[in-house]
Amino acid sequence: MDFSLSPKRKCCVHNCKDQFLPRHRFPNPKHYSELFKRWLMILRPRNYINYTDFEIYNTFRVCERHFEAHNIIAGSRRGLKYTAIPTLYLEEIPCSSKQADEILSCSQLNVEQFNLQVPEDESHKSKQEMEAEYGIEISGSSEQFNQEAPEDTLNKRTQPMEVNSVRVIKKRRLSLLKDVGVTRSSQLDPRANLLYKKLTTWSVKMARMARKITSYKIRLQKAQLCNSEGFQKIMSQVNNYTHQFILSQIRNQERALKCRRYTLEDKILALSLYKASGKGYRLLSKIFALPHPRTLSKLLQKIPLQPGINEIIFKSLQENIRGMKKDDKICILMFDEMSIDVNVYYNRHNDIIVGIEDFGHKRSSKLADHVNLFMLRGLHRQWRQPVSFTFSSGPVTSENLKYQLTEVIKNCLEIGLDVVATVCDQGASNQAAINSLIKDTREHFLREGQENRLFGFLVNNEEIVPFYDVPHLLKGIRNNLLNKDLHFVMNNKKGIASWKHIVKFHNLDSSEPTLRLCSKLTDEHVVPEKIKKMKVSYCTQVFSYTVGSLMIRLSKWGNYE
Q1: Residue 112 domain-assigned?
Q2: Which residues on neighbouring strands pair with residue 333, listed in sequence order?
Q3: What are phi and psi of 186, to 5 degrees?
């Protein structure tokens, strides 16, 4: 309601001089055509015959002085009841006695026109009884409204509203109140307010059921498609993974992103694709309906993995190798360690502190800064599977590494895998653990009085041969050449290989940048102070066939010594 003192649009009532009271529009002819015609018949604005109904609605205004006080609602958007009729100070309008009767009848609108049904057994209940029975609060304005209406009209049963059920579901609650001429439920009498709340509850239930019916129809259409003869014929030509993927696409393609649902098999297939190539998975996600990477991460977090031996991993591995050929089960065990940042936190789900030294079979209070990993890899068939990990404070000791190594090999042999070798770098702990196992094997044969003809060590009476990690061998040769010269015999001639020869070759080759023979060699490959010693690729590029052949040719030309 507007309380400003600026001049308003002229009131359309004849000879009305007011300039400051709030103005009100005619009722909307689209929604309240009968009420609009009644206003027009009463007021008859000047030259209204020349206007259409909507032009009258948008052009003419009526000031507030022409409405009775009980029809004015202070603070509301419209400022009037939706059944309000202008009846005051209309003496200047010439009208017949019939029109006066119509005006009088319009001014006596009551709740009977609200078209609400009130059960007879509830019509005489007091405010306190209705609050106790239905658990709702009846406002004071409702009592006031009830007192203004005649008692016999409130108790009278009327016909229900004839409203399309679909429109009732979709309409906003405010439209229900507009139909009875109010803007708030607090303006209704207690019984009407109770019925209004029941009606809104039923409309919500009807909307929910309508959504379910729509969902069931869509699901029925998809089920009929999947059961059709043509679809079944196509599905018989594909494997199980493709079949499940097609069903998942039919189920989720048309859904919104947050409404898609995936089975466990769908998530496992998507996880395999995601781990194979994250970039490729993002591209496939734009084409197909696939789970979000965050969903896949949550799936991985549900797997109960702990440091040390995890039975769940070996049980899963046992199921996967059951159908393998004997040669496909032959594998090697690789293990290595790497440094990590110190980080301690409390895992409340497992009630355990993570970030301290943990070998699975024992823990300590030391902060972990190294992780040790054991991985299996097939020889005849290319497959890989991490099987164990531990955390240690500093590099793992040879005693702990020896225990972990034997336990992992024993569990692999028990599930049917044929572990024939181990691969590791030349770390001090690795060398000490392997030498200790070889020593134990030698002592075993001495106690048995047998000759030791094995190349490796025994675990559960199975020979395990230790191998060097070839990339680390290359790095070891490079690191030795940085500080020492290599003496060799080639074609019955003694020779000396020094890292200085490689440095001179690089300087000679890079003297003409546009005519370089080994363009990939940089200072980070050759200059000792700039070498990245952890990069195996830098080492292999220095020892490549191209570099070696060019150095031999230059030495034969006599320009390179």
Answers
A1: no
A2: 376, 422
A3: -70, -15
* Residue of 195, 90, 82 lying closest to 136 (CA atoms): 195
Q: Which of 428, 414, 421 is nearest to 377 (CA)?
A: 421
pLDDT, tens digit, 9 for 90 and up, residues 234-293: 878 888 888 888 888 988 888 888 889 999 999 999 999 999 999 999 999 999 999 999
Phi and psi (nearest 5°) for 23? -105, 155
- Region of residue 491 (phi > 0: left; psi between -120 and 50: alpha; otherwise: beta): left
Give this prediction's pTM: 0.53
Is the Cβ–Cβ distance between 482 and 528 less than 8 Å? yes
**Residue 97 amino acid letter:** S
18 in any annotated domain: yes
How many domains is the chain built from?
4
109 Cβ contact partners less than 8 Å away, ≥ 6 residues apart: 83, 85, 181
Q: Which domain holds residue 52?
A: 1-93
Which of 548, 547, 552, 540 lies closest to 478, judged by CA? 540
pLDDT, residue 174, reads 61
Token look-up 């940048």 returns 513
SS3 state at 559: coil
Residue 442 corresponds to which amino acid?
A: R
DSSP string, 326-337: TGGGEEEEEEEE
